[in-house]
Amino acid sequence: MISLDKMILDKDSAVARRMIEYGRVDELFIIIPTKEERVLDLSPTVHITGVGGKRLQQYRRLKKKGIELVRAHEIHFITAQDPSWSGNIGRWLKHKTGATLELQLHGDFYVSNFYKKHLKDFIGYFWFAKRNIRSADRIRVVSERTKKSAIDLGVDPRKIYVRAVPLNYYEPYKEAKAKSKFHSDNPIKKQYHGYVKIFLWGGMMEPVKNLDFLIDVFSDIQRKQKEFLLLLIGEGSQEERLKGKVKKLGLDNHVKFVRWVDTLTVYLVNVDCVLLPSFYESYSRLAMEAAAAGTPVIMSDVGVANYELKPSEKVKIIPLSDRQGWINAILTI
């Protein structure tokens, strides 16, 4: 596996636990780009190598380590986490060794206008990635939306299979929900007392997540309902700028920033609603986890929206162009 997820190196992380489960079926060698060289065994059958170096060095070292592993262990199957950066390495390894190549598509990049506006992403996903996809023997997608996108791109449907990120739809959500049955037992309500409703967003604070829109919506909300609170849980390149915007708009009491935690279970079962106004989502685990917890979701038409998650009493899918629709949906939670 050629992965870009450095959380694999943390044995206690959710992704590391998932890799250990994969290792119960097949022996798994994972190579990832890291600043420092790292070698780690998550289990007797899951082996990780962080190649070390700067960006270009990482690329060369991933290719070198990949071909060493394929030949030393007679590896017959390669999976690359994305069709672009790691996909390039996967295609090269397939050409050199004859191994079967699987590319993972975690989103409908090719119909997303957001990525078409950014030159770096356009080159990566609309040029390199298309070439790599044509070379792949199998295409793994995480949702029906992504499958449709791949087919629209011209990928042979026989190459495509859907396998979402594994989710536990009942535990620990059921147990946690039971513990928070009564308002007085709700740890989030206790921590943020005095608010009538508490809303949650979680993830990487990057432009694609459209948090400016969400903050602007809450600026309008607080004029009508001053006892609503929005929790923004995560970090990213936009964090400091967004904090400045919240301060400038005088929303310090209505929008609070929370550092990322590995599991959002306690939040998901105790907040009143999850909000996801993204321009683009590959899948949106947060929406699926919220639905599993029985927590209402308001989201844009991305990822699992209108596919795995259908509109219902607890799932509202609203266009980003309909700002008043977002305000009304939030006010009626």
Number of extended strands: 13
Distance between the termini: 43 Å
Low-confidence stretches: none
Q: What is the level-2 CATH architecture name of the largest domain?
A: 3-Layer(aba) Sandwich
The helix/strand order is HEEEHEHEHHEHEHHEHEHEHEHEEH
Shape: elongated
User: What is the typical, i.e. mean, pLDDT?
Assistant: 88
Note the main sheet.
6 strands, parallel
CATH-derived topology of the largest domain: Rossmann fold
How much is the radius of gyration in Å? 21 Å
- What is the assigned CATH homologous superfamily of the largest domain? Glycogen Phosphorylase B
Strand content: 15-25%
Number of domains: 2
What structural class do helix, strand and pairing data support? alpha/beta
Explain what the structure shows.
It is a single chain. The longest helix is centred in the N-terminal third of the chain and has 19 residues. The strands form 3 sheets. A 6-stranded parallel sheet has the order 10-9-8-11-12-13, with helices on both faces. The chain has 2 domains: 157 residues, Rossmann fold (3-Layer(aba) Sandwich); 159 residues, Rossmann fold (3-Layer(aba) Sandwich), CATH 3.40.50.2000. With 333 residues, it is an alpha/beta fold. Helix 12 links the parallel strand 11 and strand 12.
